[in-house]
Design brief:
The complex is a heterodimer of chains A (140) and B (547). Chain A is α+β, with helices and mostly antiparallel strands and 140 residues long. Chain A has five helices and five strands. In chain A, strands 1-4 form a two-stranded antiparallel ribbon. In chain A, strands 2-3 form a two-stranded antiparallel ribbon. The longest helix of chain A has 10 residues, at 115-124. Chain B has 547 residues and is α+β, with helices and mostly antiparallel strands. Chain B contains 16 helices and 20 strands. In chain B, strands 1, 2, 6, 7, 8, 9, 17 and 18 form an eight-stranded mixed beta sheet that branches. Chain B has a five-stranded antiparallel beta sheet with strand order 11-15-14-12-13. Chain B starts with 6 loop residues before the first helix and ends with a helix. At the A-B interface, helix 1, helix 2, helix 4, helix 5 and strand 5 of A face helix 3, strand 4, helix 5, helix 8 and helix 9 of B. Strand 5 of chain A pairs antiparallel with strand 4 (128-129) of chain B, so a sheet runs across the interface.
């Protein structure tokens, strides 16, 4: 659940108030939003991902997290780690071109006794496609 | 609280602060709703999307990486291979033609995303891979396409009921939970894309999934199919909330006594018999593979890291957490055009039954996402066509409000039952792994008696107390309807589960643990004050099995 809004990092853009799909935050005129309905948080971490100031911390725990103190979270370097892991910049996506999970070097055959998984694996190579112009867009 | 502040009273008086008119109204802004809206808009329809949360972050896909079908129409080896691999998993209830149709539409939508400039993963040979979607990126990309297509997006705007004209869906009403305003959208056709429900089990990304659309549809007279195929559980780290299994390809699993076990049913048995299951990602031996997993399954590792778990070097406990009808099977009964049994009311994504594609299940994330994309497009196209047939006077039709239970003024309440009471009662029955993974006939019967009494006790009145502001009152009214929707959904599920005296796919009975070949049929259900279940022949099941 959402644990922290770091007030001195927050730029009061209220993006989290807008994008939170469970309406956890209340905007405060001229200041950082407040966590008004913590119990509604469903730990999707969208607020962190969309925060341009890395000013939010969401705990992965199903219950309130007493270890998530302001001091501990700031010292840990965890702020902004979700954005960094997806390659987002200042709350905006930057494409998934570098997803290494599609690299052929990492393809592993499943247990040969698992016939369904083997069949799906054998045809999975056909998911790769050659494209003439990478990243092309006709804007249609 | 004055009448002016009370959104329940304002809705009853048709005192709408926002009045919109469109060809197509889509309720729900997850991937299915996004594709419904995009497809309808590109067919020339004016479209409004009403989303309880925020279109672009709402729904379980926003914290997931999902596989999806990407099979070129001119690759018969790929297509035939997929069909022959999937059909035996459907337990005789799927239809090969629907699976192929889903493959084709999923391909078409992913190709459209490529044309619109989506940046796909690329391998070391420079080849693109379009068979996997990173949820937060895709959902925000599709939101941008909606804005470009001039779709009107109502965020933080939960629908509360459907509007119906002479038995035909004609719009919806609701509130804005951040302003307290009431709204109505009149439309020539309505697409329901509100997702499945996990009964607020706490699984990441599912708070909005309370089955609202099931309730709206039933109030308008719609029917369900396969609601018993809904006991979907997925592994999550103990104490955490993210239910995902993809990374377990790299895991060795153990029961609570330290004996090695396999994935799937053996893991479930280990929890039942020894009290817990444990995992360690020791098949990812080298740093390169570990780094790949971290990046490819960023959400999973984000959660594990913050839980203080190093999954590569330590065994960590996994629980099975309820996803319910999310990426499961059962839902609204639909025809070839994704129309429900109510004219003008269409269904897309998890709210529609997936039996024709995945049978009794389990479908998993990939087929469910392909279904969301495909059924979204079909329903949007059909809804646009339906609205066009009605013509320009569609939104002059006289309409009736259909919402009842939990929606009206507190004076209509029959008892002191609260949102918390109803939610707790439903959750006690539907969430516990030890109670709902394997279902028991006498427990199902007992639950139906209790649920029926609770339903009668709610009556039409809102389950909320007094609140200080219109915003809080709007939120409470939404919660009241959510509780009613979860209770109604639990009744269709358990009534169907009681009727199916066998174990098949995502429906398991401890008192009937075997598959019964004589029950290769669908169970249709519906009703509000009186819940009913009927059998319907699986017309395509025999052909599917024979192929």
């Amino acid at each position: 659940m959402i644990e922290l809004v770091v007030d001195d990092l927050c730029i009061a853009c209220d993006i989290c108030v807008r994008v939170c799909p469970t309406d956890v935050f209340d905007a405060v005129p001229g200041g950082a939003p407040v966590i008004a309905r913590k119990d509604d948080c469903h730990t999707c971490m969208a607020c962190e991902l969309h925060c341009p100031a890395d000013a939010l911390y969401v705990s992965p725990r199903s219950a309130a997290d007493p270890t998530a103190t302001l001091e501990a979270v700031r010292a840990s370097g965890v702020l902004g780690s979700y954005q960094r892991s997806l390659g987002w910049k200042r709350g905006a996506p930057a494409g998934t071109a570098d997803d290494p999970g599609v690299l052929l070097a990492f393809n592993r055959a499943p247990n040969p006794n698992d016939k369904v998984r083997m069949q799906l694996y054998n045809i999975s190579q056909r998911n790769y496609i050659d494209v003439d112009v990478a990243g092309g867009s006709d804007g249609s | 609280m004055t009448a002016i502040l009370d959104p329940a009273a304002r809705l009853a008086q048709r005192a709408y602060d926002i009045r919109l008119s469109a060809d197509v109204l889509v309720i729900g802004g997850g991937p299915a709703g996004q594709w419904a809206a995009l497809t309808a808009a590109r067919a020339g329809a004016s479209v409004v999307v009403a989303e309880k949360g925020y279109t672009g972050t709402a729904g379980p896909l926003s914290s997931a990486v999902s596989g999806i079908y990407y099979i070129k129409p001119d690759d018969p080896i790929h297509r035939t291979g997929m069909v022959t691999a999937r059909m035996p998993l459907a337990f005789g209830l799927a239809d090969e033609a629907w699976l192929e149709r889903t493959l084709d539409q999923s391909y078409a939508n992913l190709d459209a995303m490529a044309r619109w400039g989506y940046q796909w993963p690329v391998n070391e040979l420079g080849q693109q891979y379009r068979a996997r979607l990173r949820g937060p990126d895709v959902l925000m990309f599709l939101r941008k396409q909606l804005v470009k297509s001039r779709v009107r997006l109502l965020d933080h705007s939960p629908a509360l009921e459907l509007l119906v004209s002479d038995g035909v869906a004609a719009g919806a009403t609701g509130v804005n939970r951040q302003t307290g305003e009431t709204w109505s959208v009149r439309a020539g056709a309505v697409v329901l894309a509100t997702g499945g429900t996990a009964f607020l089990s706490g699984v990441a990304g599912t708070r909005g999934n309370t089955g609202d659309g099931y309730l709206f549809a039933a109030e308008a007279g719609a029917e369900f199919s396969g609601m018993e195929f809904s006991s979907q559980y997925a592994p999550a780290p103990h104490g955490g909330v993210l239910s995902r299994g993809a990374h377990l390809e790299y895991a060795t699993l153990f029961d609570n006594d330290g004996n090695e076990i396999t994935r799937g049913r053996k893991t479930v048995e280990a929890i039942e018999k020894t009290g817990a299951a444990w995992a360690i990602l020791d098949k990812a031996k080298d740093e390169a593979t570990r780094a790949m997993l971290r990046k490819t399954h960023a959400h999973i590792f984000l959660h594990l890291d913050r839980l203080g778990i190093d999954p590569f070097t330590e065994r960590y406990r996994i629980d099975f957490r309820l996803e319910g009808t999310i990426r499961a099977v059962g839902g609204l009964a639909i025809d070839d055009e994704l129309s429900t049994t109510v004219p003008g009311l269409f269904a897309a994504g998890d709210i529609a039954t997936k039996e024709k594609v995945v049978g009794a299940g389990p479908p998993g994330g990939g087929p469910a996402t392909a279904w969301a994309f495909a059924s979204g497009s079909w329903s949007g196209e059909a809804a646009a066509r339906f609205a066009k047939r009605l013509g320009p006077l569609a939104n002059d039709r006289p309409v009736r409000q259909t919402g009842a239970t939990g929606l009206h003024a507190a004076s209509a309440r029959k008892s002191d039952v609260t949102i918390a009471d109803v939610t707790a009662s439903v959750q006690a029955e539907m969430i516990p792994f030890e109670r709902n993974y394997w279902r028991d006939g006498s427990q199902l019967s007992d639950s139906l008696v209790r649920f029926g009494a609770e339903w009668a006790a709610i009556g039409a009145g809102t389950l909320t107390g007094e609140t200080a502001t219109a915003r809080d009152a709007a939120r409470d009214l939404m919660r009241s309807r959510e509780a009613a929707a979860m209770l109604a959904t639990a009744r269709w599920i358990n009534a169907s589960a009681l009727e199916r005296t066998e174990t098949r796919g995502l429906h398991r009975r401890s008192d009937f643990p075997d598959l019964d070949p004589a029950q290769e049929h669908h169970l249709i259900s519906g009703g509000l004050d009186k819940v009913w279940v009927q059998r319907r022949a699986a017309t395509n099941g025999a052909r599917a099995l024979a192929s």
